[in-house]
Design brief:
9 helices, single chain, mainly alpha, 151 residues
């Protein structure tokens, strides 16, 4: 997310990314190496060196990053594996069908969400508007502290 926020302005040193993301540098180095090999980020050497995105944040799908770093998009295996289990394991067909639906739903969300979506102000405003809606729904404080209604 740090590289997305700073896209087009400068390179970012790995220690700054690690600090901003609250990740160990060694762990981050491995992730950045995978992202570099996939041509999502590039590294620049020298005193002003560091890492930067090779493409605009709007062009980088979360599904691309997650598949690269973690493998399949859902903890239930890949879609082909699940389809095979649905066919070959009739006793658990219904369960595998649900897993496939969950995997497909997760994939749809991740394939339609970009780095720009998660760093942009629009996600913050959606969270705020949701919080306002919840606040208008009912007197939550009166449940916790019954005395607050009379005040």
């Amino acid at each position: 997310m740090t590289l997305g926020r700073r896209y087009g302005t400068e390179t970012v040193k790995i220690r700054d990314i690690a600090f901003d993301s609250d990740l160990p540098e060694k762990f981050l180095e491995l992730i950045l190496l995978e992202l570099k090999n996939a041509r999502i980020v590039e590294s620049v050497r020298g005193a002003k060196g560091g890492y930067r995105l090779r493409r605009a944040p709007e062009e980088i799908k979360l599904s691309e990053i997650i598949r690269l770093v973690d493998g399949p998009l859902a903890p239930f295996g890949d879609a082909d594996q699940l389809r095979g289990l649905i066919i070959t394991d009739p006793d658990h067909r219904a369960l595998y069908s649900v897993f496939l639906e969950v995997r497909d739903a997760a994939a749809k969300i991740l394939e339609s969400t970009t780095v720009a979506d998660i760093i942009g102000d629009s996600s913050k405003s959606r969270k705020r508007s949701g919080a306002k809606k919840r606040a208008k729904k009912g007197p939550l404080l009166s449940i916790i502290h019954p005395d607050t209604k009379s005040k």
